[in-house]
Amino acid sequence: MLRPWTLFGSALALLLLSSCAWEEDLSRLKTPEWQGSLAAPVAKGSIRLGDALDQIGDFSYLRVDPDGTLVFLADFPLASYSLPELVSLPDFQVAFLEPSMGVPFPIEGATLVDLSAGTLQYSIFQSVSQDVRVEFRIRDLLSNGQETRWVVLLEEAGTFEGSLDLAGSSFQPRNGLISLSYDVYLQNTQEPAAVDRVILGFSDLEIGYIEGSLETMELSLGQDSLPVKIDLDMELPQLTLLEPTMDIIIESQVGMPNRFTFASFSWIGSGGESLPLIYAPFTDGASLELPAGPKAWAETRFSLNRDNSNIVDLLASGIPTAIVSEPLIEAFPAGSGSGFLTDQDSIKVRVEAEAPLAFQLAEFELTQSFDLDLDIIDLIHSGSLVLVTENEIPLDMSLQALLLDEHGQLIDSLFDAQTPLLAGAAVNSQGTVTGSGQERLELVFDESTLQALDRASSIQFRARVSSSQGGQVPVRLNADQRLSFQLGALVR
Amino acid sequence: MTLTTFRLVGQGLLLLLLWPMAGVQAQGELSPFFLPRSLQGNLLNPASSDGGTVSIGLASPSLLVSHSGFAFGDLVQPVPGQDSSFLAFDQLLSELGDNNRVQGELRADLLSLAIGIRSFRLLAGVSSRARLDMSYPKDLIRLAWNGNAPYLGETMSIGPAFRAIAWQEVFVGGQMKVGESVQVGGRLKYLSGTGYAGTRRSQLAWTTSPETYAWDLDLDYSLQTAGLDLGELGDSIQLSPSVSPLFFQQNHGVSVEVGVLFRPIKQLELGFSAVDIGSIKWTGMARRYDAAGSLTFDGVDLSPLWQGDSIDFAGLPDSLLQAITVTETEETFSTALPGRYQVSVALEPLRWVRVSSIVQAEYDRGTWRPALAVGAQARAGKWLDFGLSWMARDGQWDIIGLQTSLRAGPVVTYLMSDHILAPLRARQAQMAHVRLGMNIQLGYKKDK
Predict the structure, then answer these.
(1) Does B78 touch chain A (CB under 8 A)?
(2) Would you call B381 and A4 a contact, using CB atoms and an 8 Å cutoff?
(3) Which sign does the torsion angle of CA B282, B286, B289, B290 carry?
């Protein structure tokens, strides 16, 4: 029979046998090594294209219309010519066959020519010594409203020369002639005498103003080359603008009926190639507006577009490095007529190019390198970055990142191939955005990649940008289009 | 004892044995049931009598702590072949339940009294009690140890919950026989709440987007406090708690406890009881704090940089927390005590041997939690009662309890524990319990 003492003793024995004392020395507890992995959002953002452009640089050649449309603008002077370059009064000489004579004025039809500069040289020869007084008179050359007169006294035999400054004088030819004469008198008796030869020479004549019933004349402006500088640090050879326009504005003070042409107008590409502008009015000739009067300006605008010129082809070749032009102005193309010119007059040629940013762009490549010094890599066993984008801008972008050593030699790449980074927004047939494009890029840093990053001295990003659908579809950029992104990181 | 009776008892015992397979969880102490000749034997069934004409229970402290999640040995394990140990979080995670409970219960029965007046027995007493329940989801530990990256796209519930309650009890009650084989008992308790802090809602869900790694947090917490002032909850939460000293002046409550014992034959006793059926209305410094909202953190917004502005990193937390609404409401509320229901069976094949079993079901805030204990007690003469019990709770099957009382004249000292092996096998223990005390017992009827 089970006795109480037996039961009690058994229980005590059980307790004693179980008394394997708990000796836990926590000082020998190893510090736990956290093996967890953390996935965390890092950054996000949303940027409006218009704001992005403001931040990237001074895009003074972009205009934002009220509806957000981005318009490419270029406004630059192409050439400027002042009157002396347009028309000149040639030197001419008059050898008197008789004391009074009329000689043709070099500019036919001119009725008034103000001289801003010029010299009249005279040469008198007498073979015998006599005291004579020579009085010159040019009735059609006026100074201060008076005909030009001067006196030369001679005593000895030989040639006597002198000159007059004609600045401020005016020719007023009559019937195309200017009248010149001289008289010779003995100094003591005032009796008429003679000299053997008299010559007048007009030189270095500069026209300050000219008017009259002028004949057709060609004003050769000469060839000019204007370097084009647009602050774009990139070449866009694959860019095709869809709706470019270019206005060539000619501001003129030439008060003469004219016919304006470009003997040449060429677009010099980045490779030095020359592409001629084809625009019928510049080939066939066009009239410039006439100013209302002296010192006034008249503007004549020539609008070039894809239908009346080849500017699409020119722009497709990229931003020009220079524009070479040689304008010609033919005054009075229909024959003689009335007109004027002054020495202050100019002709200015200006270009205004304008194109809404509606374009196709195919596989435009951007390359940028950065030095690498990533101490944090030692703390990471592996990890990944994810970039999720929602893109309202109709541009695709793919990315490759190359890891280079200190000699620039390729060590590894972050992606196996060019990897989509941004998906361009969907567009309709007019290039208008109809929806956003979503893309998710996951960049996995495994052990080998981290080792390569640790060894690399620099990383080179190669981005390729195309308009939506690989540049096969025209797209329109709008300042209100946005690019939103979320960046997350996973580290182990 | 008829054959039918034995069959019923056998089926009942079988059911009791199978019940732990449903997963028992932490409960109140069960050892007093296995020491019926002490005054504390009626803690679980007011109908149970210690056999004394007059019994006085002096201060009797009881402490029970349990943790359903893991034992110390599950966490700290030796490194094979080395004189060191490591934190075995991976193994620990495999052993954690989806939701894990930490329970602590402190009870001090300051004075108990039982006076027999003919067939009636008057019960009275004063107790001071406190209980702490905490629960934490497995996801919280998974997240802390593994990080969130392994759980992309999963919604992890990481909100812990807790309840801490302290109260005083003053009770009166009685026991009486109804016929020859039935004894009933009951207690009516006046409760005075000392303090309360507990979560009504504890929803905190964390989801990490598999696409962007963005964090979504869904918060819905409601905290009730009474007798405790947490201080100001403003834009910047600064807690400066203070405790109300007003015992017995506010936070009143009532509970009842009833029990019945049925002896179909002399050797067999069947019992049913319900204890701690009541509630406390908290009125003193009663407040409710609600915090709710959903927030998403998807990275530091760099957009201001495009506008030429700088990024306010310091203001980031505040801007995120704007999505969370925090309110404080002065509001009285009532809390029900965790009610416990017991079914017991005891067999005394010999005068000095008692074999018994008890199933306890605790109903707390909509959840039933069962526990099972089977024990054998022996009497060694007048002066010693001794018992051992086996218990299944919190998924543990190796809980051995001990109950003993030593009688010296009218003085009865006792010591009992639901898990006597806990101090000896601390690495494996997920619970611990001890109760000790002294009773004065006059007019003891040993054949009780």
Answers:
(1) no
(2) yes
(3) positive
